[in-house]
Amino acid sequence: MEIVPDASVAAKWFRREIYTDNALALLNPSVSVHVPDFFYLEMDSLVSKWIRRGFIRPNTGDEFRQTLRLYKIKPHSFHLVREHGYQISVATRTSPYDCLYLALAIQLGCKLVTADSRYYENIMATELEQHLLWIEDVPP
From start to end of the chain, where are the E strands? Predict the structure, then answer.
């Protein structure tokens, strides 16, 4: 199986919360994980926010970042899907960042997995729904 997880899913790889088991199932070696290359910057932003809010300590944030580098994730240049992501963003009135994940999934012929309910509902109201998978629908 090939998938594109967004940052809302990847966050669950590091913090125990609802759907964590589903998110962790995506790290199975039988799953091919793809992301736009800015994914790592987005994850850095998330980890630094957790540190600022006192959810984790800086050394734990460093461990999360090192662990993320060990996962078998295939980054793709966001420039390859930038135009399509922008078009999706305008058409769906959603964030261009989120739409780059979807544009990559479409280009690769796989599904975007998200745990962002607002984004999911927005996309499910369009013809792009066939390219989207809610995190709960990933078997743990």
Answer: 2-5, 32-36, 73-76, 111-114, 132-134
